[in-house]
Amino acid sequence: QVQLVESGGGLVQPGGSLRLSCAASGRSFSSYKMAWFRQAPGKEREAVAAISATGNSTDYAEFVKGRFTISRENAKNTVYLQMNSLKPEDTAVYYCRARDPLLTYYWGQGTQVTVSS
Fold it and tell me: How many CB atoms neighbour CB 54 within 10 A?
């Protein structure tokens, strides 16, 4: 079983930045593909960014390209989401997801990001 704990959310003004972290339990983190999702009130959960197990490959939703960066430190069992130029429409609960080699998915509890002046 993998446990994921997100942190780093909060209130930020438009144009500001935040860095989210997701810490994973277990010894197999370096074999997990990791991703960030978000869910705004009244909307479906949507994918934001993903990163391969080695960190060599990343993928982004169009609405965050050029503003968000996903990265990972396998030695620390942690994945990050650097969010710059934040907009009010980025307001959502952000979730971390892990996929193990057996294609089992694990989710964190989420961290709230609010972009408002």
Answer: 11
